[in-house]
Amino acid sequence: MTDVTDATTARRGPTPDDALRVADSRREPMLAADGTPLKRSLARALRREKLRALMLIAPLLLFILVTFIAPIADMLFRSVENQIVSDTLPRTTRALADWDGQDLPPEDAFAAMAYDLTEAAELKVHTRLGSRLNYEAPGISSLFRKSGRGTGDAGEALGEQFVTLDPAWENPMVWAELMAPPDWLEARAAHYADGGEPEGLPAFKLRDEADTILPETASVYGGFARITQFEDGDDPAEEDPWSPIYLALHRDLAADPPLGDWSGPHADLLAAAAEAAPAMETVPLVQQFEEIDEDWLDPDVWATIKTFSPPYTPGYFLNAVDMQQTPDGVELRPETQRIYVTLFLRTLVMSLAITGTCLLLGYPVAWLLANLPSGRANLLMILVLLPFWTSLLVRTSAWKVLLQQQGVINDTLVWIGLIADDKRLTLINNQTGTIIAMTHILLPFMILPLYSVMKTIPPSYLRAAKSLGATDWTAFWRVYFPQSVPGIGAGSILVFILAIGYYITPELVGGTSGVFISNRIAYHISSSLNWGLAAALGSILLFAVLILYWAYDRMVGIDNVKLGG
User: Fold this and answer.
1) What pLDDT does residue 34 have?
2) 152 and 10 share a domain?
3) Is residue 47 domain-shared with residue 90, that is, in the same domain?
4) CB-based contacts of 318: which residues, under 8 Å, 6+ apart?
5) Residue 202's domain spans which residues?
6) Count of CB atoms within 10 A of residue 5's CB?
7) Number of domains making up the chain
8) 257 and 148 together in one domain
9) Under-70 pLDDT residues of the chain
10) Are residues 533 and 473 in the same domain?
11) 3-class SS of residue 451
12) Which of 326, 442, 488, 556 falls between 20 and 30 A from 290, CA-CA?
């Protein structure tokens, strides 16, 4: 038998089966044409195919990432982001960490606020901070705007006393030698020796001893030097220090324990100032802030700052459901300010009503399109698509003309005697006007999916049902309608998603009772600039749509949704 097999193999040559048998008998892996194991060669080829497929779809993935995923992620982040408070008032945030929120905070908090607001005013960000906190407590915006100018004078009287004690305290270079390390001073001198300009100075840094012995002074002077150098483009050693720096110096020198050993320059100057500091005339910071604005004596203002000092907050989401975060916890807003839950419910109900109206009006039109002769069907299709050739703003404005009490519809109804002239219908600036106008605008989006599905239903099915004794209604309901359900699902989802996000048409024809939540989102983005609340409202709307989408998939099945075929 072996001789016969060998003879046959010699006559027709080796085959893949022979190679398999040989490899199996030798217990060796099969090899590809290039000598590598076949399994490894196939895996490498498969990886190449996957990589090639990935490169083909990479532009589409990148487009979706940039235009869809990234904006949604940014919206979700903005709805909880609150870093402006802690970034603008870092010292105040730390000073209020252990405050109980009952009485006024300690003097340290007022000093920290003076330092922070001075820097914020120099950077021109104190108004942005005021606008952020104004969302939570109306009136704080004007308080911060006014205080940004006033806190810069804190410590002015102390500065005059330090200069009277020794004029050297007025010399910017003395301050630079006190606060900066020797290597920065040497680098500065070399920079100017080479003909450099202030803009090219090496970055200022604080002396280690200054940060240890004079912590408040070093902190405020460091902010002064940073802003002077990088924002104003000047040399910190040539600019007069801010008045709050003298306030910080006095607080450091009068602190307990007193000033320790100073190993830096101007030790005698600093020692004399430390000896004279307790006797200097001071005005309590609480009184200075009261002179700026009496609202600083309101503990609720400080409590609001503390409540919203964390970098992330649920405050925007709470506001989006008519609640608020207070120092005492989460509370409902006053009844007169609860509007968002009502708007959400109105948006969902009216969007469902618009979807249902579009379905009732669009189903017969789609049936006609699918069953009329091609010539008439094409003419009807042109009429269906005609609204797309007209601007959305023009169509909405036309409805304003038609629906108003002295408009075409009311005039026609009065002319034919259906209504009295003194009882004209109110069809504009309410929910009725919104539903009518949006049904007209979104109707093609219902007709086209229905038509694409109905076109695939063979007319012979209805004829067969009638030939078996079914009535027209039974044939339609038992045979035709179930096959059109995928088109109903596609059209309904499309219309509902478009309706829930519309804001131009409700804004123009909805009045106060016909606007959607999307109108408030647009308002906060373009007018009030409360992007955090707008992002929270948008996120809730997104979650609501996803929940409805999930419910639809569970009840109907998203696989049954078709646009044709």
Assistant:
1) 65
2) no
3) no
4) 324, 325, 330
5) 80-313
6) 10
7) 3
8) yes
9) 1-35, 256-261, 556-565
10) yes
11) helix
12) 326
